[in-house]
């Protein structure tokens, strides 16, 4: 017996005073409505209605059951209605997971814009440098940098992540610019210690068709990519920065890209999520919004022409100063 269907039929019949009208209200046949109530009576071992050819009225046991279940049935009906509306309205709680490195420099301004456009969505953002299993962590959408996220999620590539060796014009003016990977040993360099493992990140270089890894001893080491970017901007040393942090400063002339023939592409920034057909409208809307704003967004990486134009800076002079006089 479908107890929820039987109880619902009973309550509608009691409220409307007719099994036939209850059947029409629920979109079932009168025979199915009558059968549901009889099965409920058999299950409970009591009669719920007095039946005559003209009238349907509650027994004492039926009245007690009606008084007990009607409030709960109203709450259930309201909850089901809310669930259906979540497929039609952009509101409710939206849980997002993202690495700290991409929070402020890449994602946050778009999160703010989404909130302004959809003020009824309650956005809960968890910055976590570990891969987030969406089901286990009860997240709706995740962002991850590097290779595509593994598992059963759908992943969409947004922007490439380049690793670019940079220095400030002031640093180059004082110390010159390294012209080879080996010359980095003669310079003060910054380092990034991964927050999730505690290990010092190796520098990566493209040499021909291969990517080689080097341990570069840091003069200053941090576990936050924005702080490392600030250290390079302040002239404290040469750093290998992610393009999502460096590109805007390179274009403004505040940073000079070095050894650009060795720039590597360290995977990409991905957005990942479960199957769209099972998601509330707020989740689908957020995914579409972020893909529209972020997919191949030139703000966060340098194209080949920009890298070629920046090659081989003269020692002691910033690359941005060449060719202007």
TrEMBL record:
Residues 1-59 form the HTH lysR-type domain. InterPro entries: LysR-type_TF_proteobact-type, LysR_HTH_N, LysR_subst-bd, WH-like_DNA-bd_sf, WH_DNA-bd_sf. Keywords: DNA-binding, Transcription, Transcription regulation. One of its GO terms (molecular function) is DNA binding. Gene3D superfamilies: 3.40.190.290, Winged helix-like DNA-binding domain superfamily/Winged helix DNA-binding domain. Belongs to the LysR transcriptional regulatory family. This is DNA-binding transcriptional LysR family regulator. The lineage of its organism: Bacteria, Pseudomonadati, Pseudomonadota, Betaproteobacteria, Burkholderiales.
């Amino acid at each position: 017996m479908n107890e929820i269907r039987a109880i619902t039929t009973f309550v509608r019949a009691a409220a409307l005073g007719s099994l036939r009208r209850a059947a029409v209200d629920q979109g079932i046949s009168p025979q199915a409505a009558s059968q549901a109530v009889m099965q409920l009576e058999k299950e409970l071992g009591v009669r719920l209605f007095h039946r005559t050819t003209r009238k349907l009225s509650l027994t004492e046991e039926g009245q007690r059951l009606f008084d007990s279940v009607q409030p709960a049935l109203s709450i259930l009906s309201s909850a089901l209605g809310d669930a259906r509306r979540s497929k039609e309205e952009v509101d409710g709680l939206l849980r997002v997971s993202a690495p700290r490195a991409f929070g402020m420099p890449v994602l946050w301004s778009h999160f703010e814009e989404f909130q302004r456009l959809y003020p009824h969505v309650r956005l809960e953002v968890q910055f976590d440098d570990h891969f987030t299993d969406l089901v286990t962590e009860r997240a709706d959408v995740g962002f991850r940098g590097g290779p595509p996220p593994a598992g059963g999620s759908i992943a969409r590539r947004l922007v490439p992540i380049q690793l670019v060796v940079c220095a400030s014009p002031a640093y180059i003016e004082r110390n010159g610019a390294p012209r080879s990977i080996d010359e980095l040993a003669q310079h003060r360099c910054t380092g990034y210690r991964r927050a999730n493992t505690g290990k010092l990140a190796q520098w990566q270089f493209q040499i021909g068709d291969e990517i080689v890894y080097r341990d570069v001893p840091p003069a200053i080491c941090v576990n936050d990519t924005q702080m490392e970017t600030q250290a390079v901007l302040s002239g404290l040393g040469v750093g290998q920065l992610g393009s999502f942090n460096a590109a805007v400063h390179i274009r403004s002339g505040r940073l000079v890209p070095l050894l650009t023939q060795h720039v590597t592409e360290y995977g990409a920034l991905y957005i990942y999520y479960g199957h769209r057909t099972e998601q509330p409208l707020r989740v689908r809307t957020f995914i579409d919004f972020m893909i529209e704003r972020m997919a191949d967004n030139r703000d966060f990486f340098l194209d080949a022409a920009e890298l070629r134009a920046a090659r081989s800076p003269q020692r002691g002079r910033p690359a941005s100063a060449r060719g202007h006089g």
